[in-house]
Amino acid sequence: MLPSFSTFGDMLKFLRRRARLTQKDLSxxxxxxxxHISRLEGNERPPDPATLxxxxxxxxxxxxxPELVARMMELAAAARRETSPEALPPSTGRDAATLPNNxxxxxxxxxxxxxxxxxxxxxxxxxxxxxxxxxxxxGKTRLALRVAKEVLPTYPDGVWLVEFAPLGESVLIPQTLVxxxxxxxxxxxxxxxxxxxxxxxxxxxxxxxxxxxxxADVAAVAETLLRTCPHLHILATSRETLNVSxxxxxxxxxxxxxxxGWVHSLERVAEAEAVKLFVERARASLPSFTxxxxxxxxxxxxxxxxxxxxxxxxxxxxxxxxxxPEQIAARLDDRFSLLTTSPRDFPARHRTLQAVMDxxxxxxEREEQQLLNRLSVFACSFSLEGVEAICGVTGDxxxxxxxxxxLVDKSLAVAEPDEGGMRYRLLETVRQYAKAHVIETGxxxxxxxxxxxxYLALAENAEPKILGSERAxxxxxxxxxxxxxxxxxxxxxxxxxxxxxxRLVGALFWFWHFRGYISEGxxxxxxxxxxxxxRVGPGNSRQMTALGKAxxxxxxxxxxxxxxxxxxxxxxxxxxxxxxxxxxxxxENQRILAHALSNLGLVVLDEGELLQAYExxxxxxxxxxxxxxxxDLALLLYNFGEVTYARGDEASARPLLExxxxxxxxxxxxxxxxxPAFLFGLIAGxxxxxAAARVHFEEALGLQQEEGDAWGTVEALLLLGQAAQQLxxxxxxxxxxxxxxxxxxxRVGDKSILVRxxxxxxNLALIQGHPERAAQLLSAFTAxxxxxxxxxxxxxxxxxxxxxxxxxxxxxxxxxxxxxxxEGQAMTMDQAITFALLERW
Length: 841
Hints:
The protein is mostly helical. It is 65% helix and 4% strand. The strands form 2 sheets. A 5-stranded parallel β-sheet has the order 2-3-4-1-5, with helices on both faces. Helix 33 packs antiparallel against helix 34. The chain starts with 7 loop residues before the first helix and ends with a helix.
C-alpha cells in the first residue's frame, strides 16, 4: 500500500526514490537542473500538467499507474493554486479607468514576473510601506505599475503615481504630490499641512517612483504621511531603501534566465522570462523574427550576459533589425556602445545602457565611486577579506565595510549568503561600466597585481588542505574563486610576473586533479611554462623553485592523459632544475623533487623500463622519509609499491601498500585510503580471486566518488567492470565500462584508460555474442594503443589477444572479419568512443 501524500514535493521525492533515482539522475532525465529538482521537492511551484505528463511520468516509470499520475497532477494543481502568481485577489470586474487613478496606459505588454506580482500584491496589502529596489533598468517601475493595477480595487480613493525623476530639488516633493492628487492649495496653510489633511481620511495607495536622487527628503515626507494618515499605503521604487521604520524592502530580481541545461532545447529556452521579453521586443523591431533551434543558444547567451536586466534586453532586441542574435552576443563585451537605441518615449536616463549606469553612478559619493571602480577587478563573487586586501579606499576597515554596504543598498553590488560567510558580486553590466572608469583613473595595473597576489596566497594556503581531511572545504573554497584564479594567472603571464604565474600553476594542480579539470589545467600549465619559463634567471632560487614545481604539475597531467613522451620531457626538465639549483627552502624543494622522481618512475614504467622505474620511485621514498610530510610519504610509498608489483614482486609490494594505507588513515584522508585498494584489487585479480578484487574496487570507487576525484573514479569504474565481467555479471560490467568512458571523455581525457576501456568493451561484446562489434572495438583498440603509446598493464582481464582474435575470425568468417577489422583500424579516438557509447546491438 502506498503512503498518502499531502504535498506535491513529498510525492515527487517518494516516486524518485521508488524509481531508484538520485536528484541528479532525475534532473538529467527531465532536463532540469539538480537544484531545480531539489526546489520542487521542497514544494516550489510545480511544472504545468503538460510538462509533468511528457517528462516526469516516463522518468518516474508511471506510464502504467494512472491513479498515481492523477494524484500527482492533483497535488501539483493544488500547489500551483497556493503558491502561484495566478492566485491573485479576484477582480471586481470594474475597469481600472473607472476607478480613481492616474496610472498610465502601457503601450507594450508586460512579460513574466508572475511570482513577484503575487508576492508584492500580498505585501502591499499587509504593509503600509513597501519599497522596490534594484539596479537601474531592472523593471521596478513597470512592476510597481503592474501591481498597482491588481490592487486598484482595494483602494476606494484610488492609486496615484508620483514621478520624482524629473525633480531636481527636494522642496518640490510636497508640491508634486499636491499636483498629482489634484488638491486645491490655500494661502492660509503650508502645502505639507494641506497634503496631510487631504490624505488623513482617505484610503489610497501612492506610488512614489524613482526616489533615489532625493532619497532623504522623500523618506522624511513618506514617514510623516504614514504617521499622520492611518489609511495610506505607499509603494516606492528606488535604487536604495528609504530606511524608514516599518518599511518592507523587495529587491526586484533579474528576469528568469534559461537554466544551463536548457540552451540546446528550443522549448525550454522559450519558457524563460528573459527570452520571452527579448523575442517580443525583437518582433516589435522585426516582425519576421522567430526563435529557432539555430538562434536559441545565442538568444539565451544574450539574456544571460545581460544579467536578465529588462532594459538591457529590450535595447539588445532593438538591434535585431540590423544584427543576427549571434552577432549581438559576440559584441556584448562592448555593450555600452552597442545598446544605444531605445524608443523616444523612454526617459532620458533609460535611452541607453550607458545613461542608466551614468544616472546611478552620479548619485554615489566620491569614495563609493572609487570602491565600485575597484571592485571591477573581481571576475566572480568576492569576500569581504578580498575587498579589504585589494580594493580598500581608506585605511579604516570599518569605513570600507560601510562603503561596500552602501553599494549593496544602492543596488550596485549584490550580497549573497554563503556557507563560508557573506559573499558579494557585481552584475556583469555593472562590472564592465566600473572597469572602464578604473582604466580611466590609471589604477588598473596596481589593482591587478594586488588581486593576483591575493589569489596566489589563497591557492597556496588551500593546497596543503586539499591533501588531507580538509579537502572538501578547500576544494569548495577554490571553486568559489576559480574565475578569479584564472584571471590572475592570465594577467601574471601577460604582465611578465613569471614567478607568480608559475607558482599559481604549481599550487593549482591538486585542485585540477580532484575536480577533473585535467585538460584545462594542462593547457594553462603548458601555456604558462612556455610564456614564463625562458624568463627565469639561473641565479633566482625562488623562480627556479616555481618553474620546477610547474614542470612537475604539467608533467603529471600529461601522464594522466597518456602523453608519455611529453610527460617524460617535463619531468626530466623539472628534476634537472631541482637537482642542480641551490634553493632557499631546502625542505620544500626536496619534497617537490621526491614527487617528480616518483612520477617520472611511473612514466618510465609505462614505457617498459622497469628497473629505472624501480630506482626512481625508491629514491623518491628515501627523500620523502627525510623531507616529506606523512601524506607525501604515503603517496610515494604507493607509487613504489605499484612499480614493485609490476616487476612481479607481490610479496614486497604488499607491505609498502599497507604502510601507505596506514599513513593515509592517520592523516584522515579517505581518498588516500582508496589508492592502495586499487593495487590490492589488481593483486587479487592476478591471483584469480575476482570476488575479492571486486570488493577492493568497490571500496576504491566509493571513496573516489565521495572525495570527488574524477580521474580515480574513471579508473575504478573500469577495473570494477573487469571484475564483474570475470564473475559473469555482464550487465554490471557494461554499465561500469560505459560510465567510465563517458566521465573520462567529458572531464578527464586519460587516453590510456580510454584505450583500455575500448578493449574491455570489445572483449565483452564477444562474450555477449556480437563478434562484429567485438572486431571493430578490438581493432580500434590495437590501432589507438600504438598511436597513443598507452599501456594495458593495469587490467585483470584474461588477455590472450591472439585467441580472442581467432575466436572472432571464426565467428564472422574471413571476409566479414576483414571488413570489421578495417573499420576499427580507421577510427579516430573520438569516432571509437562515439561508436562504443552510441551504437547498440
